[in-house]
Each structure stands twice: as structure tokens, then as C-alpha cells.
Request: fold
Amino acid sequence: MNRPLALVIDDEPDLCELLALTLDRMQIDTQICGDITTAKTRLQATKFDLCLTDMRLPDGDGLELVEWMQVNGIGIPVAVITAHGNVETAVRALKLGAFDFISKPLDLTALRKLIGSALKLQNTHEEVSGKVSLLGESSSMTDLLTLIDKVARSRAPVHITGESGTGKELVARMIHEKSAQAEGPFVPVNCGAIPSELMESEFFGHRKGAFTGAVDDHKGLFQSAEGGSLFMDEIADLPLAMQVKLLRVIQEKSVRPVGALEEIPVDVRILSATHKDLRGLVSSGQFREDLFYRIDVIELKVPPLRERGEDIDILTDFMLDKMARELGVAVPQLTSDARQKLSTYSYPGNVRELENILERAVALSGDEPIAAGDIQIRDSMGAANSEAALVTPEAGEPDVTGNVLGHQLETVERTAIINALEETRHNKTAAARNLGLTLRALRYRMQKLGIE
Reply:
């Protein structure tokens, strides 16, 4: 089997020898050159699998070479060797398309991890076929999918913006599964859901005895995501004190658990998201500018559903098929009037709202095709236009009908179903009849309410 081939660009003989020796021990062949001009000639004449370039070279800098490679379609991973602590240079390199960066003096363990990740990119696209994917054929979705493929080939931090319900976490999962970190864990966390007093322990871990209640060592989210991706949803909700600590972890690529004396290196790609205007929060002093520029190296905007009208039919058919498989029933059909009603709505709750609307429609339609009257949507004042409030959304999700009694009604509904099942000795057909529901509607509500 042919060994991978790497191009090393540096004018320091000692560093070149160290890199060549490290690569050779990883079963990688190496070519070495000392300037940008020679590097360009080699890259055009030879097929390399990896490129490592120093920043300062006799006839220019490594950033110029990174940009030239992107412009000329040389799509091999390129990593930039920067001076220690030169964060601005590292960020610029990632924005220009570098796979990653590593600081001097070189940490050989980190270097090996970087090289290993870069080489995994060769077959990543084929390996993730059939995994999570965004649906849609609109121009905005096509552009987004193209960007996802592009940014997945880098280890640069990605910040995902978009309204609530657009699928930001799905975008993050796609980036992870198409990346060199795909074999590692994908760890999602909602930053607004962690109490501020527990944040440091949750993110960085703690040692036994570090504080009252710390009865065992605890691995934080960064260590749990080792070798993979940490997705920080609603990152705008982080308090300022935590933002400072997060910035240091991203810059130093290491964490110090609460109560520990030494830092632990971590190899984690940072993906983040928020529905808030992060730039506005920076201007108002609610979000640190230096952290913003570290996490917003690449920004992806997920379009709202109202800008993807041609995708509504595709999403509708997919969701109905999924519901049918979960319930073990035939796929519900939609009348033309129902499809027309779905296509003309603006969906302030985006894809999540479409799914909630369809879940209600399935329950209301019984065994008949879903008609326009079963499509319960809000009017211009934001109120439900029928008895949709009688069918509540899934626990934990936003109630797009504005029904403030949603959770209470769920409790009443669950109790009624359980009582009906007990009275009929768990005969679902009889219980459905007693409740005035179709069997399909009863099965649907049992599943949504978690009734076994």
C-alpha cells in the first residue's frame, strides 16, 4: 500500500528534520522545501495528501500560500505553524481555509492528532452517506449544503445563526459527521440550561473533594467530546465570567478541572449556535469581543422556512412518513386544499412548527386524509384558529398555539387515556371508542405522551 505524502514548507533545518522524523514514524513520506515559490511548483506537479507550512518564509508568509491553494483548487488539508500565542494569525489562517494550526514550540502529541485528523478527510464524504441530512431543494438550502461540505473539511470553529426551529443543531451534526472528527463523539449542550454555579464543573470537570458534593472525579463536556465536536447551543446565554474561561480553553486547547493543579490537553472542535444577534450583544458589552472572533471564524446562516417555500412539500412528506413508521400505520395522505394551506403559511416557528402542525393534523384527521380543516395554524394575531389547543405539543417543545395550559392539559389527557385503558383491560380499540377517538389517534397520543 502506498504511504501518504506530505509537503513540509519551512526554512529551519532542525524543525524540518523533526517534522520529517515524526511523519516517518506515522508511515508518511515527506518532501521538504524552504520557500513559497518552490512550494507552489511542487503542489502543482505532485499529488500530496497533507501540507504543513510555517508562517514566516523567505519570500512571503504561510497565509499567502493557504489563500493561493484555495484559489487554485488545491484541496488538500493545510496546517499553519504559528508563533505561540499568536491568536490573530491563527484565526486569519482558518478564515482563509487552513485545516488547522499548531503553535511553536511543537507539541508532538498534538501534531500527531492533527496529522491523523487531516488524513481522515480523504474518505469522510463517502462514510457519512445515509446519516443525518437537511432536506430541501431551494436555492438557499443548496447554498447551505455546499457551505457545510466546505467547512467540514476544516477544524475551524463554526458559528451557526438562524431563528429558533430552523435546525441549527442538525447543521452542527452534519458538519461533525462530514468532518475528520466523525469517529469521535458529538456532544451537544444548551448553554442556557446550565445553572451558572455549575458551569465550570460541567464544562471543565472537577476532582473529587473539589467542593461539597464532589464525591467522585467528573469529566467535563470538553473531555467528553475529546477527538470529536462540542456543540454549544445558545452560546449567547453564557455569563461573562464563563466567557473568559471558555476563551482561554479555546486558545490554549487545554482545560483545568475544578480542584486540579494541572491542565489537561483537549482535542475538540467548537461548534456554536444562537438565535440572538451576537454582534449586537458584543456592541452592548454583553458578549466578549475576543471570544466572538474566536468562535465566529466561519459563520453559517440557516434560512427560515418562509424563505424556503419550495421545500415545504418535501419536508411535509418526510415528516408524515416518519410519523407513520413510528406509529406502525399507513402514511397519512393530504388533500390538495391542505397542501395549499401549508404552502401559504409563514411559519414563525419554522421547521419545528411545521412538524407540530402535522402532528396535530394526524391526530385530528383520524383515519381520513388530512383536510384543510385539520391544519391548525395561527392567524395574524398569533392565536390558534380553531380547537387546536385541545391537542398539545410534545412535552418540552414550544407551544406554537399560544396555549398557556398546555402542560396541565397533557396531564389531564394522560390520566384520561390511562383510565380508559384500565377500564377496558388495555383493549386499545375499546378505549379509543370510549374516548371518542380513532384507534390511530389514540396510538399517536399514547406515543407522544409516553404511555406504554
Notes: The two ends are 54 Å apart (CA to CA). Residues 406-423 form the longest helix (18 residues). Confidence is low (pLDDT under 50) at residues 124-130, 380-406. The chain has three domains: 5-123, 134-303, 306-448.
